[in-house]
Amino acid sequence: MGLHINPSILSADFADLTGELARISSADMAHVDVMDNHFVPNLTFGPPVVERIRAVSPIPLDAHLMIEDPDTWAPVYAEIGCASVTFHLEAATAPVRLARELRAAGAKASVAVRPATPVESLIDLLPEFDQILIMTVEPGFGGQRFLDVCLPKIARMRKAISASGLDVMLQVDGGISTETIERAVEAGANVLVAGSAVYGAEDAEQAIAHLRETGRRAAAAAAEA
Ligand code: DX5
Ligand code: ZN
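^ thats the input. predicted complex w/ D-xylitol-5-phosphate below
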């Protein structure tokens, strides 16, 4: 399973999204944080802006919906062309039905958990999902410190995915840098979201390459161990 680096545009200059997306063309996907000021205490943008981001982005979109009522709204993001749509387990009423709707609309179905939410209830549901996102900060803001207390949960989910034999990606989001990426990858993550570590760098493409290289080395070392 390959390693994916998805920069979060939350730390980009919102007044120049076209230019900011061009800075990450070597990444796998652009991570787009949708916040509604209800599920999290922050507000970003909604479908019309995401649709424009999709139109100008050189790479596919990985939408992360930190919103209430994803049962109503998540399918809209699939319909406007997001390649992957992540909703929060804590906010969804019918996660299985919603995952099926996302797949039917042509998107990868992905579900996220906050740091204090257990992943055990998702284990039997793995066939319904293309990706699980384990948050490694409390969602809402970029630039927070990576929560090492989430590492055992990442490892448990990786074990469950391996045991299932399914091709489910394991994403981590929050506090990923060249310093923390090794621990996340060793625990079993293979999709790494990084906001401030990419957009805070002078050369974003170089920061992506550095994260990719550090992550690959950690994955190779973990495979040998
Ligand atoms: C936080 C967002 C993240 C955030 C990550 O709620 O979901 O995607 O942008 O930013 P960093 O990498 O700075 O922690
Ligand atoms: Zn995110």
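The first strand starts at residue 4 and ends at 7.
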